[in-house]
Design a protein that fits this description.
heterodimer; A: mainly alpha; MetI-like fold; 2 strands; 74% helix; B: 254 residues; alpha/beta; Rossmann fold; 6-stranded mixed sheet; 4-stranded antiparallel sheet
């Protein structure tokens, strides 16, 4: 084989491998739409998205997923409220402030948290957090928004922390030196130079953490409570979209409207995580404050 | 060199990176409102000494200083001294231009801002004055909001000088400030140094011996962590006392 032929061969083999994941993604999305869209022959898009009743097995059935959408958004929002400061600030501590030995203990521990199976976290939520909430606040059930948000936050923290940490490490040392040489303290340097320079990475971290939280299934299935109603308080149980899909898919007859409605719910979820990812991309472009001195 | 004019003096300074002794028994004085050049082959300790003078070496783990570094008579390595205060009075310009990825204005205003100057009018005046001093004002006065990253390398370096001057330091340390620049930008910075020495004490590390000869009043030659010779620049370059100095400046080694 000639050298150019070999080169061509290798290039195309690699292209083939790269194509595999793209093709599989394409097929999954195609399948999702093929199975999901038929539901709109029965309900209108507006009734599906904004309908307040989700009773797919009643007679007549109702296919309004608004309570599920609200459930997903609300637990993600409260999870974000907890996870963003926790994740970002612990990353700042590990990357910028922790002395060597402490860093070496903290860093793998945070990453270990990412490796915990979600079912274990869900179990923790059911067995420990739920009774605690129930007794402390005297609630009918401890499986609710607060519980789900708390556990989802735990799941998002390692994602946010480790990506933020990488973003902080990639800030060139020369920026920090310049700041110190101008008489800035460590805190001033972190706030005024390091964080802005890492902002796009931090934003990506937050968005990916949130995408993870909104798509997470097992935790919300176990601890969100499962009530398909628009919540009125943070102690109300909810039924986020992934929980609904996971819980009902097994009992929905293949090809039934309920089955198609669950796939359509999957489409909505897909667009939401897509939105998070696009937002992450946009933010990381928009707030870019990077680069180093050019020569 | 008269004793009384020394703004910074080092007394028997030893410096260690871990177990490695990078500087040995450095005793020298730096005259006020003069330009002092530190020359010597790579790894001779001249940059280490420079970074010692505003405690930038504190930021590197595992370093240790022995001896005294007196700035206006007070030891800057006294445990009661906050390195932040020292760095506010002894500015630094680095080898590679390192403006922040912020606007030109924000770069210059950074130091004053962290030091509590926050009135817009004061900042405007300070930024203009510093950029004028760094002879960059005319080139950037209409684009102060543009990112400093859009400037050329030479302009970036003058911006870094302006940024250091905005702190109104007493001493300006320059670590090979032109080694990454083209000859035209280098000439501009050398002119600038000439101008600045009226108001500031400048200590410059350079690999370029013509540069040391052109801009400095005193020159110290370093080799293997020691000061081999320290004298008036004209004397050091014309009648070096030590064989090693002569070999180095005539290009026989280094």
């Amino acid at each position: 084989m000639t050298r150019t032929l070999k080169e061509l061969f290798i290039k195309n083999i690699l292209l083939l491998f790269a194509l595999v994941s793209v093709i599989i993604l394409g097929l999954i999305v195609l399948f999702l739409f093929l199975e999901g869209l038929p539901v709109f022959e029965v309900v209108s898009v507006a009734d599906f998205l904004f309908g307040l009743e989700w009773y797919p097995t009643y007679d007549p059935p109702d296919y309004g997923i608004w309570p599920l959408i609200v459930g997903s958004l609300v637990v993600t929002f409260f999870a974000a409220l907890l996870a963003i400061p926790l994740g970002v600030l612990s990353a700042v501590y590990i990357a910028e402030l922790a002395p060597g030995p402490v860093k070496e203990i903290f860093k793998p521990l945070v990453e270990l948290l990412a490796g915990l199976p979600s079912v274990v976290l869900g179990f923790f939520g059911m067995a420990v957090v739920a009774p605690l909430l129930q007794n402390t606040f005297n609630l009918p059930t401890g499986l609710n928004i607060v519980n789900a948000s708390l556990i989802l936050a735990f799941m998002a923290v390692p994602t946010i922390a480790s990506i933020t940490e990488d973003a902080l490490y990639s800030v060139p040392a020369e920026f920090k030196e310049a700041s110190y040489a101008l008489g800035a303290t460590k805190a001033e340097t972190i706030v005024n130079v390091v964080m802005p320079a890492a902002l796009s990475g931090i934003a990506t971290a937050v968005m990916l953490g949130m995408a993870r939280a909104i798509g997470e299934t097992m935790v919300v299935l176990m601890v969100a409570g499962g009530a398909a109603a628009v919540p009125e308080s943070i102690f109300d149980p909810v039924r986020p979209m992934p929980a609904s899909i996971a819980a009902e898919m097994g009992e929905a007859p293949v090809g039934s409207i309920h089955y198609h409605a669950l796939f359509a719910t999957g489409i909505v979820l897909f667009f939401m995580t897509l939105a998070f990812n696009l937002a992450a991309d946009y933010i990381s472009e928009r707030f870019r404050e990077t680069g180093s001195g050019t020569l | 060199m008269k004793e009384s004019n020394h703004i910074i003096t080092t007394e028997n300074v030893n410096f260690y990176y871990g177990d490695f002794k990078a500087l040995q028994d450095i005793t020298m004085g730096f005259e006020k409102n003069r330009v002092t050049a530190l020359i010597g082959p790579s790894g001779c300790g001249k940059s280490t000494l420079l970074r010692l003078l505003n405690r930038m070496n504190d930021l590197i783990d595992g370093t240790r200083v022995e001896g005294k570094v007196l700035f206006e008579g007070a030891d800057i390595y006294d445990p009661r001294v906050d390195p932040v205060d020292i760095r506010r009075r002894i500015g630094m310009v680095f080898q590679k231009p390192n403006p922040f990825p912020k606007s030109i204005f924000k770069n210059v205003a950074y130091g004053p801002r962290v030091n509590g100057v926050c009135r817009k009018r004061d900042l405007d005046a300070l930024v203009e004055k510093s950029l004028l001093q760094a002879s960059l004002w005319n080139e950037v006065k209409d684009i102060l909001d543009r990112s400093a990253m859009t400037l050329s390398g030479g302009q970036q370096q003058r911006l870094c000088i302006a940024r250091a001057l905005a702190m109104k330091p007493d001493v300006l340390l320059m670590d090979e400030p032109t080694s990454a620049l083209d000859p035209v930008s280098t000439a501009k910075i050398e002119e600038l140094i000439e101008e600045l020495k009226k108001d500031y004490t400048i200590i410059i590390v350079t690999h370029n011996m013509q540069q040391a000869a052109r801009v400095s009043d005193c020159t110290g030659f370093f080799y293997l962590g020691r000061v081999i010779e320290y004298n008036r620049t004209d004397l050091l370059f014309t009648t070096p006392e030590k064989k090693q100095t002569e070999d180095y400046i005539t290009g026989r080694f280094g």
